Structure formats: structure tokens, C-alpha cells
Amino acid sequence: MFFDTHAHFDAFADPAEARAALDRAEAARVGRVLAVGGSPDTNRAALEALAEWPGRVFAALGFDRDQASAAPSLPRLEADLARPGVVALGEIGLDYHYEPETAAAQKTLLAAQLEMARRRRLPVIVHSREADADTLALLGDHARAWPGDPERVGVLHCFTGSAEFAARLLDLGLMISFSGILTFRNADPLREVARGIPGDRLLIETDTPFLAPVPHRGKRNEPAWVVPVAEVLAKIRNDSLELIEHSTTANAERLFLGARS
Prior knowledge:
Strand 4 (about 85-95), helix 4 (about 105-120) and strand 5 (about 125-130) form a beta-alpha-beta unit. This protein has one domain (about 1-255): TIM Barrel (Alpha-Beta Barrel). Strands 1-2-3-4-5-6-7-8 form an 8-stranded parallel beta sheet, with helices on both faces. The protein has helices spanning about 15-25, 40-50, 75-80, 105-120, 130-145, 165-170, 190-195, 225-235, 240-255; strands at about 1-5, 30-40, 55-65, 85-95, 125-130, 155, 175-180, 200-205. The longest helix has 18 residues, at about 105-120. By secondary structure, the chain is of the alpha/beta class.
């Protein structure tokens, strides 16, 4: 069964709609989904999904870069991270594309949450856009101070960067996750990067409700559609779909659940 490692459940209007999406996912052989937070609303939606479908849905909680100027409640976040089924801290990170004026506040927020992840020994789910140098600097400090399993540092989600950026992240112990962008017509450079990622450091995701893959572009994304991402990975890496299914699921279970293959 595939593991969609990044979906935002606030995309669904109500539990019935989320249940229908999960049923479609199961029919497509997507057996587990990580419900990811990043704001008060998305954190709440992730916890509600976790409570509704334990064992099928896991949760990650955090405050993303767009919360940097909102004084988010870090003590409340740390308390919620202790709940059963919360398996990661995220989505967190830096994005200088839309709000470069908040760069300093973004770095402060990210550093505080990386410290929290070390205390909780939780892997982190990191977003980075037009912020490679600062992302690497903060993650470098985090990796050097990381007290947990070296295979469970975290993941750079929805990767769209260069081969050099990927190599630096791999050197720090992170995994690399690819989304529906990998299927886009103009994504040849990204597919070249994905071809070179070691098989034991590779994850797949939908980033629901965003970035629906070909052939579903223009629609609201959903966990079932992580399979087209896996299909493209299999094609460009000259692997079987079954191998991609097995390896990406094993990697996700190792990172988020502490499972050993």
C-alpha cells in the first residue's frame, strides 16, 4: 500500500467528504495518509482526522512560514505534539517568494520549532522556497544537535530545487519528497533530480488540495492521486511500480513511525 506523506485535511468540507476521499485512496492502494498542519486551522483539521481514522491517518502539527508574524502559541503546539498518533512536527519552513519582509521572523519561528522537534525527538516536515541558504543553515544546526535516530531527522517536502540543494539536504540526513509537480510537462529538470535520489531517502506526497498531478491538473488534489507521482518515479528511475510502492512506504514508516524494514 502507498503512503501519502503530505495532505491538508482542511481541504475537505466535512468528515463525510474526507471519508469518501480516503475510501478512494484505499481503492487506489493508498493505505496511509499523513495529515499535515501548519496553522491553527490545519493543525485542528489534522487532529480531527487523526481522531476519526486512527491507524489510517497520522498527524503532523506545526506553524508554517506564513504564521511568522502572528505570534503562534508554541506552548500549545508542544502540548499537542505529545498526543498519540502525532508523528512529526510540520509543516514548517521558509518562503521568501511572497513575504520576503518577514524573513527574520520566519527564521526565528523555524529555529524555535526545530529546537522543539529535538526535545520531542520528532522528525520535521520542511518547506523551502527561494530560501535555500537559510534553510540549509538552520537545518545544519538542527542535524548537528539532533539527539534521535539519525534516519529520522526529517524531510524536505514538495521538493522543487536543484540537484545541489538535494545533495546538501541528503548530507544532513533528510529525506526528499516529490509531489504532483513531478508529472508536469515542464518538470524535466526536477525529474532529473528525482532520478538521482537514493531509493532509501525517497518519499511521495500529494500536498492535497494543491498540485494535482497529470492527468488531474486543475482539480482539487486528493490522497488517491499520489499514485501518478509513483508511476512517474518508476518510469524515470527504470523501476517497477511495485518497488516504488514498497520503498517509499518503507521510508515513510521508518521516518514517521520508527519502523524498521
